[in-house]
Automatic annotation (TrEMBL), chains A, B:
Domain Glycosyl-hydrolase 97 C-terminal oligomerisation: 599-699
Gene3D superfamilies per the UniProt record, alphabetical: 2.70.98.10, Aldolase class I
Superkingdom as given in the UniProt entry: Bacteria
SUPFAM superfamilies: (Trans)glycosidases
Protein's name in the database: Glycoside hydrolase family 97 protein
Native organism taxonomy: Bacteria, Pseudomonadati, Bacteroidota, Flavobacteriia, Flavobacteriales
GO molecular function, one term: hydrolase activity
C-alpha cells in the first residue's frame, strides 16, 4: 500500500470562543460550529461562499435523562488536523483511493452533569462528514437514545429525489419533487412490500439526493453504520429542515450504547458538478481500514442464476404445491407430489452450468434448492429454513462435482425470511455446509418482517446481526451478498467479504410491475452512495408475459440500457440475470456481458444528471481495456463522449452497443446496433440514447 | 421398564349430544363438557359429588380472525380411552410412576370456517388435565393467539396462596388471603426485582394453591409448556372466576402457532387431603416420555458453592471495582486493580474443593469465575459475557485438575443477564469449553430484563430458548439447572438433563431481607407442583451481618428447618449453600447433609397443610435407608409420626435432628438437639417443631 501521510496537529484550547471554522483542503467548503447561549451545538456549511446548510442543531436525546446531550455544553477542548493518505481497496472502482480531509475535533462538556462528548468534523473536497463520540468516563457509561437531534437545514425548496422514510424497506421507485411537495406525494410514492413501516408523511430515506435551483447538488447520507440504528430524515416543512429520525426497537428506544462508543458519520456532499457526488469516496474513507487480514480469498464474481425464472413466475422456488405448510425434519418431501415447476433440480441446474461455463462466467446462483419454500413467506414462521437440507431433486454433491468439472463455482442462497434467531442458530452449520461443498459466496435474504417480532430491518438489533453474519462468514472465508438487509454505508472497507447488498428496488421489480425507466439514473446518486448494489441487470426479454402468461410486467429498459448497467451500476458482483435462451437470441449483445470487467483501476464519471442520464468510463484492473456505459432517462438524448482518458499514443478498438434509431424502452426495447471503431485518446464519439435506453462500449487496446 | 398397559378404546360418535361426561378411575372426579347454543365449549368438574369448578368457558381468541376459536362449534367426534401404565423416571421422588387416567377426546368443528380443533381431557385420581390440539388441516395453518380464554370458575371465596401475576419473575413471598382480597393486597405483595412486570391487580401465577372453606384443596397449573407462552391467571372478582392470561411478546401477541400443534395441559388437582396434591405425578404423566435415549450421563448432584459469600455481600462476583464498564476482548483485566474481595480465585476455590471433597460432595459451583461481572447487571448489556474467558485469578485448568484429584466435579455457571441472543451466539463454544474442562453440569441464570427488549421471561420466545439450551446441552451430555427461567412444567420427563430450576423465591432472598418463615411450607404446593426446585438450603448462620456488616438480613429458619429442606424440598440437585466455616461450627448437624440421599425409590407425604407444615418420608434409591423431614410455619407445633412405611421385621436406627426446646427462627435459630433411637415399622415418634423450625431424620437399617 502506498501511503503518503502528512499530519499537522494544532491544539487550540479556548473556553471563550464559541465559533469554530474548518475549511476543506481545496477551501471550497467551509464548516462553522458554535454553541448558543444555552450551550446547544450548531453547525452550518458553505460551499464556494454560498450557504448550503443553514445553522443546524446537533445533539442527542436520551431516555430517562432530563438534560440529555442536547444543551448545557461548553467547549472543553478543540483540535484540528490535516490528513492525507492513499490506500488500496481489495476490490473497487479504483485501485487507489485518496483520503484527504481537514478535521476539527470539538470536546463538549456538560459541567453540571460532569460528562463530555466529542463531535468530530471532517471536511473533504466533496463535502462534510461528522459524528458524535462518547469517550469512556465515569458519568456516561450506559445510555439509551430516545432520538438523535441532528439537523440539516436546507436553504431553499430544493428538488429532491426521494423514497418514503421506512423502517424496513428501500424497494420504492423514486419520486422527484420539491421538498415542499413530499408530504402531498407521499401516499402515491408508497408501493406494497413484504415488510414496510413508515413513520411520517414527511419522512424520507438516505442517501437523499437534492439539487438546488442554483444547480448545486447536495447529498445527505451516513457512513459506517454499526452498533446503531439507521437514520431516516424527517422534513420540517415550515423551516425546510431535515431532522434525523432513528429506527426504533420493539419498545420504541432508538439505540443502546456503552461508552466508549461512536455514532455513524453523517455525510453532506455538495458540488456544482453532479459527477463529483458519484465519484466521491467519502463513505469509504470514513470507514475503518480492512480488519480481515488476508483477503486473498475475496474476488469479484460474474454469475448467472436459477432465479429470474422464479421471479417472473415461470417456475417456483417450492418443490410441491400439495402442502399447506411444512415442518422441517418432520415433513417427508419424498412422499409429496412435485409440482413439476421446481427449477432448482439437478438436470436443469446442469444446463445453466453448461451455459455459464461455456460463456466464461465464474459462478451460478441457485435459489429454491432447499426444503422449506412451501410456506416461507408471510407466515411469521420462526424455524423456516435450516440452510442445509436440499429438496429431493437437488443433488448437492453431484451438482458441486459437475460445476467444478466445468470451472463454475456454485453460489449459495440463504433466504432467512427475516427470522434472524433461526438464521443465527444455523449459521455455523450453514457455513460449514458451504465449505464442504465448495460454495465460496452466499446471497442472503431477509424477506418479510423481522423475527424477533417488533424489531425492524433497520433497527440496531438487525444491524448488529447483519454484521455478525458477515464477520462469521469471514471466519469461514465466505463472501456475503445480503439482500433486504440494511443499505450499505461503507463497511466493505473494513469487511471486504461484504461484496454486495441489494437493499433498494432492483431488477426483480421489473417483473413485479416494472420500475420507472429513469430509476437507474437515480440509484447511483442515492442507494449507491453507500456502496455497490447487486442490481442483477442483463434482461434481454422485456415482455415478461413470454415467460409467464400470468405476468404482464414489462422491463422498462432497452437492451443497450441493460448492457450499460454493468458499467454504470457499480458492483463487484455482476449477474447476467436473464435465462440462457434469451441470451442465445442475442449472442452479439451478450458478448458485452462476457467481456465486461468487474474490478477496476480507474473510474471516470463523465457526465451525470440525477433522473436523466449517467455516463461512466472505467479501466479494467491490471489491463489496458476500458468500458463505458450510459443510461438514459425518459427523454431521448444525444451525448458526446471525449475519450481523453485513454492512454496517449495507444490505439484501441471500440465496440459500441447502442440503441437502434427507433429503440424505446416500452415499444421497441430489443432494437440495438453494434458497431466497431478505431479510437485513441483524441477521439470523440457522438451517440444517441433512446428513452430508457443507453449505450455500452468496450475499448480494447490494439 | 416394567409396563402394564391396559387400553380399551371406545368410539362414540354423536352429533346430537351436547353433554359429555368423564369420570376418574376411582370415580371421585367427574368432568362434564358441553356446548351451549352458540357453540361455545364449557366444562365443569365435580369431586366426590361436590362442584369444584362451575361451568367454565374454553376457547382461544385469534389475531385477525373475527370468529376465532371461541364459538360456532359443533361436536364432530368423541372418543374415550382408559390408560394405565407404569414407567421409570431417570431420577425422581419414586423409582416407578403409575400413569393412570380416563381420557375423553372431543373434536369440535366450526362448519362455517371449515376447520376443527380437539380438546383432550384426562381425569386422574388426583384431578384433571386438558389441552387444546390443532390438527393439520387446510383452513387452520398459521395462526396467532390474541388470548386464550380458558376459565376456572371457583365455587366460593376460597383461601389462596398466591404471588402476583407477572411476566418476568416468580421471586415473591406468598400471600395467604381470600380470593376477594387479592386485589387489595396486591401492592403489598409486590417486592422489587431485577425484572418484573405485572398486568393486573387481580393477576396471580400458577401453580395456584387454594383451600375451600369445606377443606377441599384445589391446585391450578399447567404441564408441558413448550412452543407457547406461560399462562398466568386473572381473577374476575364478580364471579370468582380465574381466566387464563397468556404472556405477550414485544408487539402484544400471545403465541404463534403452526398446525399441527398443541397447547400445554391445564391442570386442576383436587383433594380433601393436602398430601394428595404434593404426591401427585400428574404433571410428569402429562409430559412426553424421555426423548434423549441414553441417559447414563445424567445423575443427581450434591454440591457446594462459591456463591453464598457473594449473595450475602461478603465477597464479590466481579474482579475489580475500578472500571465503570467493561468490553469483553478489549478490557485488559491484568491491568486493573483487583478489589481483593473476588471470591472466585484459584486458592480460595481450592479450599472449597478440599472441604467438599472431605465431606463426600459430588461437585462445586463457582460463580464469578469469568470476565464481565463489573457491569453485568441492570445495563441492558448485549455482549455481556462470553462464557469462556476466566478472570486473571481463576486458573481453569489448575482448578479442574485439582478438583479431579479430589474426586470433585466443577459445576459451571452461565449467567446470561437475560441477553438471550448473546447466550445463543456463544452456546456451542460455551458447552465445548465445559466438555474440555470436565464440567458436566451448568447453573444458568437470566437475571434482568430479557434482550431482545420487549420480550419477557415467560413469553413464547424465551420459553423456546430455554428448551433450545437444554436440548443442545444434551447433545454435549450436559445437565442444566436454569435459574430465572420459566418455572418447570414437567419437561424433565422428556429431557431428563433438565435437572433443576429456581424460578421462585429461593434461599438467596433470606440474604436480601429474608423470606417469610412459612415460605417453605407453601412452595411445594405451588412452585414444586411443576418440578423440583434448586432451593439451595443448608444455611447454619442466620445472622447475615456476621458475614457482611452492611447486610442486616436474617435467615428466617432454624437449623433443623434447614436440614429438613433436603427432604421436603424435592430436588435431584441439593446444595449445602453456607460457607464451610459455618458448617465447621456445627459438624454434628452437618452430618445430616452428608448423609442425605438425593434420589429416591419412594416418597410418602405424611401430613401437610399449606402455610403451616409439611412432613415427608423418603426411601433412598437402591437402599434400605429412609429420610424424614418436617418444615413448620410460624406456629410451634407438635407432630406424631408413624413409621409404618418402614419395612416390616427390620430394625433401624433413627438419628433425629430437631429444634431445641427454645428454638425460634428469629431469636434462637441455631438451637437444635440430636438424638438417636431404635425404631421399627411399628414405632411412633412424637416431635415438636419451633416457629420456622422443623426436624430431619435419617433412618438407617441396623
Amino acid at each position: 500500500m502506498k501511503n503518503t501521510i502528512v499530519l499537522f496537529g494544532l491544539l487550540l484550547t479556548s473556553l471563550l470562543t464559541y465559533g469554530q471554522t474548518l475549511k476543506s483542503p481545496n477551501s471550497e467548503h467551509e464548516l462553522n460550529f458554535k454553541l448558543n447561549e444555552a450551550g446547544t451545538p450548531f453547525y452550518s456549511l458553505n460551499y464556494k461562499g454560498k450557504e448550503i446548510i443553514e445553522e443546524s442543531q446537533l445533539g442527542l436525546e436520551l431516555v430517562d435523562d432530563d438534560t440529555s446531550l442536547m444543551n448545557g455544553f461548553e467547549i472543553k477542548e478543540i483540535s484540528d488536523t490535516i490528513f492525507d493518505e492513499t490506500w488500496e481497496p481489495v476490490w473497487g472502482e479504483q485501485s487507489e483511493i485518496r483520503n484527504h480531509y481537514n478535521e476539527l475535533v470539538i470536546t463538549l462538556e456538560q459541567p453540571k452533569e460532569e460528562r463530555h462528548i466529542i463531535i468530530r468534523f471532517r471536511l473533504f473536497d466533496e463535502g462534510l462528514g461528522f459524528r458524535y463520540e462518547f469517550p469512556q468516563q465515569k458519568n456516561l457509561v450506559y445510555f439509551v437514545i430516545k432520538e438523535e437531534h441532528t439537523e440539516f437545514a436546507m436553504t431553499g425548496d430544493h428538488t429532491a429525489f426521494w423514497i418514503p422514510g421506512d423502517y424496513d424497506s428501500q424497494e420504492y421507485d423514486y419520486t422527484i419533487s420539491k421538498l415542499s411537495e413530499i408530504s402531498g406525494l407521499f401516499d402515491d410514492a408508497l408501493t406494497g412490500n413484504a415488510s414496510q413501516e413508515q413513520f411520517a408523511e414527511t419522512g424520507v430515506q438516505t442517501s437523499l439526493m437534492m439539487k438546488s435551483k442554483d444547480g448545486i447538488y447536495i447529498n445527505l447520507h451516513e457512513a459506517a453504520l454499526k452498533e446503531y440504528s439507521l437514520m431516516n430524515l424527517n422534513l420540517d416543512e415550515s423551516s425546510l429542515t431535515f431532522k434525523s429520525w432513528l429506527t426504533p426497537d420493539a419498545v420504541g428506544n432508538k439505540g443502546y450504547l456503552q461508552a466508549p462508543a461512536v455514532s455513524p458519520w453523517r455525510t453532506v456532499m455538495v458540488s456544482d458538478d453532479a459527477t463529483d457526488i458519484l465519484a466521491s469516496n467519502m463513505t469509504l474513507n470514513l470507514n475503518e481500514p480492512n480488519a480481515l487480514g488476508d483477503t486473498s480469498w475475496i474476488k469479484p464474481i460474474k454469475y448467472m442464476g436459477v432465479w429470474w425464472e422464479m421471479i417472473t413466475g415461470k417456475s417456483t422456488w417450492n418443490y410441491t404445491d400439495e402442502l399447506p405448510s411444512v415442518k422441517l425434519g418432520e415433513t417427508d418431501y419424498s412422499k409429496t407430489i412435485p409440482n413439476g415447476k421446481h427449477a432448482a433440480n439437478t438436470e436443469h441446474v446442469k444446463k445453466y452450468i453448461d451455459f455459464a461455463s461455456k460463456h466464461g462466467f465464474d459462478a451460478l446462483l441457485v435459489e429454491g434448492w432447499n426444503e422449506g419454500w412451501e410456506d416461507w413467506f408471510g407466515n411469521s414462521k420462526d424455524f423456516v429454513f435450516d440452510f442445509v437440507t436440499p429438496y429431493p431433486d437437488f443433488d448437492v454433491e453431484e451438482i458441486h462435482d459437475y460445476a467444478k468439472s466445468k470451472n463454475i463455482e456454485m453460489m449459495m442462497h440463504h433466504e432467512t425470511s427475516g427470522a434472524i434467531r433461526n438464521y443465527e442458530r444455523h449459521l455455523d452449520t450453514a457455513y460449514q455446509f458451504m465449505n464442504k461443498y465448495g460454495y465460496t459466496s452466499v446471497k442472503s435474504g431477509y424477506v418479510g418482517d423481522i423475527i424477533p417480532r417488533g424489531e425492524r430491518h433497520y433497527g440496531q438489533w438487525a444491524i448488529n446481526h447483519y454484521l455478525y453474519a458477515v464477520k462469521k462468514a469471514a471466519d469461514y472465508k465466505i463472501m456475503v451478498n445480503a439482500h433486504e438487509a440494511v443499505r450499505p454505508t461503507g463497511l466493505r472497507r473494513t469487511y471486504p467479504n461484504l461484496i454486495g447488498n441489494e437493499s433498494a428496488r432492483g431488477t426483480e421489480f421489473q417483473a413485479f410491475g416494472g420500475s420507472k425507466p429513469n430509476h437507474v439514473t437515480i440509484l447511483p446518486f442515492t442507494r449507491l452512495i453507500g456502496g455497490p448494489m447487486d442490481y442483477t441487470p442483463g434482461i434481454f426479454e422485456m415482455d415478461i408475459s413470454k415467460l409467464n402468461p400470468n405476468n404482464n410486467s414489462h422491463v422498462n429498459a432497452t437492451i443497450a440500457n441493460q448492457l450499460a448497467l454493468y458499467v454504470t451500476m457499480y458492483s463487484p458482483l455482476q449477474m447476467a440475470a436473464d435465462l440462457p435462451e434469451h441470451y442465445e437470441q442475442f449472442m452479439d449483445a451478450f458478448q458485452f456481458i462476457k467481456d465486461i470487467a468487474i474490478d477496476w483501476d480507474e473510474s471516470h464519471y463523465l457526465e451525470a444528471e440525477p433522473g436523466e442520464y449517467i455516463t461512466v468510463a472505467r479501466k479494467a484492473k491490471d489491463s489496458s481495456s476500458w468500458f463505458l456505459g450510459n443510461v438514459n432517462g425518459t427523454t431521448p438524448r444525444k451525448t458526446k463522449v471525449d475519450l481523453d482518458f485513454l492512454e496517449k499514443g495507444k490505439t484501441y478498438e471500440a465496440t459500441i452497443y447502442a440503441d437502434a434509431k427507433d429503440a424505446h424502452y416500452k415499444t421497441n426495447p430489443q432494437a440495438y446496433k453494434i458497431s466497431t471503431k478505431k479510437v485513441t485518446s483524441r477521439s470523440t464519439l457522438k451517440l444517441k440514447s433512446a428513452a430508457g435506453g443507453g449505450f455500452a462500449m468496450s475499448i480494447i487496446e490494439k
